[in-house]
Amino acid sequence: MSLELTDVTLTYPDGDGRLTALDAVSLAVPAGSMTAVIGPSGSGKSSLLAVAATLITPDSGRVVIDGTDTAGRSRAELTALRRKSIGTVFQQPNLLPSLTAAEQLQVMAHLDGRSPRKARSRALELLAAVGLADRADRRPHQLSGGQRQRVNIARALMNEPAVLLVDEPTSALDHERGAAVLDLLTTLTHQRATATVLVTHDRAHLDAVDEVAEVRDGRLNSRLGSRT
Ligand SMILES: Nc1ncnc2c1ncn2[C@@H]1O[C@H](COP(=O)(O)OP(=O)(O)OP(=O)(O)O)[C@@H](O)[C@H]1O
Fold first, then answer.
1. Where along the sequence do coiled-coil regions lie (predicted)?
2. Is the CB of residue 55 below 6 angstroms from any atom belonging to ligand 1?
């Protein structure tokens, strides 16, 4: 398993007491497969993603990323693990306005100490994989919303992460562009063997995934997706 959450419980301070955002949640996502996480507002989806991203340490339970148990790791170790093993795609692409599409990706490799020449060729390869080979030298304002989200996805894959965490990637897109982005995520998940978690409100997305996990009041029920 590339991503394994076992019996994860997370609480937040809430007045005099604690609010249980995740209640003994277990989730395992193998390489090359995509799990959709659905559930009503406030059910714990973002909390689940934040725990999987190692951005929040749960009160109890185990989080294993690409074979590495995160328990007891220092902040620096977790940052290194995130950089190496986790790619994130959020609703808004958050691209840097002054950089071209290729440079947005190259920055990631630079942070990782890779050679600039290798970074450039990997950036171009990934932009081609997301259908933007001819847009590599455009800046964000010269791209459409769907194209910006594609750059965002390519950037998340720059360091060949084992785990890809995706939060509502199509919420800013119309139906057709949203469907194309979802198709792309499915293809990349299989091609690049990432363990992908997709938080979504869109039930149309559920047909494309391998497994659906529904969160309600911090508890998780898994059921198989229609691809399997
Ligand atoms: N930092 C925090 N401090 C206190 N409570 C929080 C915090 N973050 C989230 N919560 C609470 O934890 C619960 C789960 O929130 P979470 O953001 O994970 O839900 P969600 O399913 O992602 O919701 P949405 O679909 O609206 O984004 C909610 O009751 C929320 O109010």
1. none
2. no
Q: Is the pTM of this model over 0.95?
A: no
Q: Whose CA is nearest to atom 6 of ligand 1?
A: 12
152-188 residue pLDDT tens: 999 999 999 999 999 998 887 888 888 888 999 999 9
Q: Is the CB of residue 200 below 6 angstroms from any atom belonging to ligand 1?
A: no
Question: Which residue's alpha carbon is nearest to atom 17 within ligand 1?
Answer: 46
Pick the CATH number of 3-224 from 3.40.50.2300, 3.40.50.11540, 3.40.50.300, 3.90.1750.20: 3.40.50.300
Domain extent listing, the chain: 3-224
CA 157–ligand 1 middle distance (angstroms): 27
Residues 193 and 30: beta-carbon distance below 8 Å: no
Query: What number is the ipTM of this complex?
Result: 0.96
* Centre of ligand 1 from the C-alpha of residue 44, in Å: 6
CB of 196 within 6 A of ligand 1: the answer is no
